[in-house]
Amino acid sequence: MSRIDHYNDPTAPKANSVVPSVTAIVCDGSGRLLLIHKTDNDLWALPGGGHDIGESVAETVIREVAEETGIAVEVDSIVGLYTNPHHVIEYDDGEVRQQFSICFRAHPIGGSLRTSSESKEVRWIDPADLDGLDIHPSMKLRIMHGLDGSRREPYIG
Predict the structure, then answer these.
(1) Of 4, 17, 137, 150, which is the most exposed, with the fewest CB atoms less than 10 Å away?
(2) Which of 67, 74, 90, 121 is catalytic?
(3) What's the pTM?
């Protein structure tokens, strides 16, 4: 299913759903960031996805990272809560979802890189190379917050 992200766009369609979701800042021992090249919008992004009934939000992080990247993780902390009502995602089935994402920090504990139906490429990226990738502004914000070691409190916005 394809999607269009509307970010601070006054002509965006009105949201008709909210789905709690997660993203994860996962860095390896060299400080490289785990990113996926998404199949639905052709952008680079943090691994993540929707929260399922019957699992804790930490279990959602663990499941989504493993499903999309092949990497097993443990969750460490919360980076922030991203609920901007002016960021909606329009899907081709008529759903228009208001962003509701909790971003976590996690560290890898095993696995090996692999793609999935949601990720056409998976890579460990040196943060210095992020500017060369096509990343949505809302995802860049999470990455910036997640890599900022001086932040003591989660972002709420």
Answers:
(1) 150
(2) 121
(3) 0.92
Residue 146, in any domain of the structure:
yes
At 1-51, the pLDDT tens digits run: 678 889 999 999 999 999 999 999 999 999 999 999 999 889 999 999 999
121 is catalytic: yes
Number of domains in the chain: 1
Residue 1: the pLDDT is 66
Domain that holds residue 141: 3-150
Smallest CA-to-CA distance from 44 within 143, 125, 133 is with 133
Q: Considering the domain boundaries, does residue 37 fall inside one?
A: yes
Q: Tell me whether residue 155 is in a domain.
A: no
Q: What is the CATH number of the domain that holds 89?
A: 3.90.79.10
